């Protein structure tokens, strides 16, 4: 099969925008809780009416500061309540929010603010304001920078206090006229790709794209985003389109939303907030599993965890093959009571579904979590598709695939294996880049740059990136991603980069997980030491070799990783090796570690 399509469940009515989704929520459940804000040790509810009133107050402040319909307003911050408030206020004022990762360098900030022609920027900290200040002389469109925390009054929400105060002179009727003038085909946001090569491109996403996905999600995932008790804790960056879409879909349904912007507080926030569904990238799920594995330690408890893991995987696999027998059901119930329930507790105790995207999850991890009572809804999408373009649905999960096309989406596999996508959720183009836009499309089909296949049921499987295919000196084409994902599943491994383009065989650069390394060493009686000091330790090399051997079982002999080299540190965003969404910038790694690669083939 080379073509699959899923019809829309809901068509976006004319006159609909992201702000009308909020208005509908207020009309349906105005006195019900829409968000909860962390206040010390407790979560304070914010009703839909209260949030809407705050949105209007901040939006009037934007108008008072001269923001006109269509103007671009940047937000640079961690994930927090104020980001969601600003997003909806900017939309209400008829303007266009432009997200910026809070980890961005001054050079990256300059590119995004200049390319998008940002007029006003709201940043979280004085350090962020300094990053803008280093380049604002070259930003002729930028008129003002407001700081949320530590601003002129030194308090939290300083920027919002300024906006609320300024907005008191703006009549509501003029603001509501702006809001009502926004239509589905108007620009909603410009999201800059965190691609692994070249300068980021600004994907122009419309209100229709967000509304189509949000409204169809209510019908396609009714037990997730539209459940009566639905709660989600946003902790992925809201600068990423994945979290932004979930934010909008949550408002369109009945979900109560919380925010957690600091990974150090995530475990406590999950425990207190108790979400029913989460969105995550595979790296987060890998960390959850490996942390549970390490907490079990060695000896009897370690063997018990390994037994429970095998039981969970077997129970999950049996779901796809007629269901588990009596013996496996009894075993699974015991494993759940002794071990698996703790995994759910670590996520707050009420999570039923996890929406996973951004990278392949891996079948074994998918089966483990399903066996542990958590349904992983693995999906696939791009910034250019406003996030989801395919997703597994509850009750029809096919582990190892990213599911069928999302409602309203068509997927086609080109002759060279590239995945092409068509639907109302596609970007309208790259900001100020007609050549890049033309290159991204074949007619009205978006070229994803990913390789994949469709099974007989129309479910999509992603097999790699077209531009990342390695061609060895012997002419063998190798897709690095599946090998990397399998090696990275090991608890000791943080990142993997498969190399071998133009070389006689395939090899890999490997980094160690700094968080889990101390516990791993202690469990084996090895003195605690940094990665640079133990990267050549026989036990470390043996563990990485075992992970490589496991990955090699999935490919032909010519595609196997023949050898590897453990680096003395991890790949980081600050060194330019990772994107803000934790994807590896392959070209940067190959360039910066050329001497290590040469040594492999020396």
Please provide a written account of the structure:
It contains 21 helices and 26 strands. The two termini are 44 Å apart. The protein is of the alpha/beta class and 602 residues long. The protein folds into 3 domains: 18-182 and 225-276, ANL, N-terminal domain (Rossmann fold, 3-Layer(aba) Sandwich), CATH 3.40.50; 282-349 and 352-466, ANL, N-terminal domain (Rossmann fold), CATH 3.40.50.12780; 469-600, GMP Synthetase, Chain A, domain 3 (2-Layer Sandwich). Helix content is 39%, strand content 22%. Strand 13, helix 14 (363-371) and strand 14 (375-382) form a beta-alpha-beta unit. Helix 16 (480-488) packs across helix 19 (538-552). The chain is globular. The strands form 8 sheets. Strands 1, 16, 17, 19, 20 and 21 form a 6-stranded antiparallel beta sheet that branches. A 4-stranded parallel beta sheet has the order 5-4-6-7, with helices on both faces. The longest helix has 21 residues, at 299-319.
Examine the coordinates and then state which fold CATH places here, giving the name of the CATH topology of the largest domain: Rossmann fold
Query: Architecture of the largest domain, CATH level 2?
Result: 3-Layer(aba) Sandwich
Q: Which blocks of ≥5 consecutive residues have pLDDT under 50?
A: none
* Mean model confidence by pLDDT: 92
Write down how many β-strands occur, each being a DSSP E stretch of 2 or more residues.
26
Strand residue percentage: 15-25%
CATH superfamily of the largest domain: ANL, N-terminal domain
For the largest beta-sheet, the strand count, sense and barrel status come to: 6 strands, antiparallel
Helicity range of the residues?
25-40%
Number of helices: 21
Number of domains: 3
User: What's the level 1 CATH class of the largest domain?
Assistant: Alpha Beta
């Amino acid at each position: 099969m080379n073509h699959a399509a899923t019809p829309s469940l809901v068509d976006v009515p004319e006159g609909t925008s992201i702000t009308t989704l909020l208005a509908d929520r207020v009309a349906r459940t105005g006195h019900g809780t829409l968000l909860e804000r962390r206040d010390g040790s407790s979560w304070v509810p914010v009703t839909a009416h209260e949030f809407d009133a705050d949105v209007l107050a901040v939006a009037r402040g934007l108008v008072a500061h001269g923001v006109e319909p269509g103007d671009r307003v940047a937000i640079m911050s961690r994930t927090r309540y104020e980001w969601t408030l600003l997003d909806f206020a900017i939309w209400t004022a008829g303007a266009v929010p432009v997200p910026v990762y809070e980890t961005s360098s001054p050079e990256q900030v300059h590119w995004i603010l200049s390319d998008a022609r940002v007029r006003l920027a709201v940043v979280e900290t004085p350090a962020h304001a300094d990053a803008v200040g280093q380049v604002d002389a070259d930003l002729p469109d930028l008129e003002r920078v407001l700081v949320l925390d530590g601003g002129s009054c030194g308090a939290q929400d300083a920027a919002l206090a300024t906006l609320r105060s300024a907005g008191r002179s703006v009549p509501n009727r003029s603001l509501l006229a702006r809001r009502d003038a926004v239509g589905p085909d108007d620009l909603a946001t410009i999201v800059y790709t965190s691609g692994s090569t070249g300068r980021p491109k600004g994907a122009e996403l419309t209100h229709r794209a967000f509304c189509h996905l949000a409204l169809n999600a209510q019908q396609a995932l009714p037990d997730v985003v539209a459940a009566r008790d639905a709660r989600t804790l946003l902790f992925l960056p809201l600068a990423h389109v994945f979290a932004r879409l979930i934010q909008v879909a949550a408002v369109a349904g009945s979900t109560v939303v919380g925010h957690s912007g600091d990974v150090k507080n995530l475990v406590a926030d999950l425990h207190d907030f108790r979400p029913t569904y989460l969105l995550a990238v595979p790296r987060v799920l890998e960390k959850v599993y490996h942390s549970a594995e390490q907490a079990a330690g060695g000896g009897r408890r370690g063997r018990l965890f390994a037994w429970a893991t095998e039981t969970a995987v077997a129970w999950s696999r049996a779901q796809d093959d007629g269901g588990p027998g009596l013996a496996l059901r009894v075993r699974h119930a015991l494993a759940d009571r002794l071990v698996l329930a703790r995994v759910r507790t670590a996520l707050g105790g009420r999570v039923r579904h996890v929406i996973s995207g951004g990278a392949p999850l891996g079948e074994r991890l998918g089966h483990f979590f399903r066996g542990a009572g958590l349904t992983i809804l693995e999906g696939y999408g791009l910034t250019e598709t406003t996030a989801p373009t395919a997703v597994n649905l509850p009750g029809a999960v096919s582990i190892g695939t990213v599911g069928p096309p999302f409602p309203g989406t068509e997927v086609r596999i080109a002759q060279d294996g590239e995945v092409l996508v068509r639907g109302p959720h596609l970007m309208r183009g790259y900001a100020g880049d007609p050549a890049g836009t033309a290159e991204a499309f074949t007619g009205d089909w978006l070229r994803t740059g990913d390789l994949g296949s469709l099974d007989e049921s129309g479910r999509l499987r992603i097999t790699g990136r077209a531009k990342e295919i390695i061609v060895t000196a012997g002419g063998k084409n190798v897709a690095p991603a599946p090998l990397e994902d399998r090696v990275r599943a090991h608890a000791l491994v943080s990142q993997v980069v498969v190399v071998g383009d133009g070389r006689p065989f395939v090899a890999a650069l490997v980094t160690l997980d700094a968080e889990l390394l101390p516990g791993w060493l202690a469990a084996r009686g090895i003195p605690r030491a940094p990665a640079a000091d133990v990267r050549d330790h026989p036990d470390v090399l043996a563990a990485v070799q075992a992970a490589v051997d496991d990955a090699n079982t999935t490919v032909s002999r010519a595609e196997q990783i023949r050898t590897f080299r453990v680096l003395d540190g991890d790949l980081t965003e600050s060194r330019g090796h990772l994107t803000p969404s934790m994807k590896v910038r392959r070209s940067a790694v190959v360039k910066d570690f050329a001497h290590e690669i040469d040594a492999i083939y020396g």
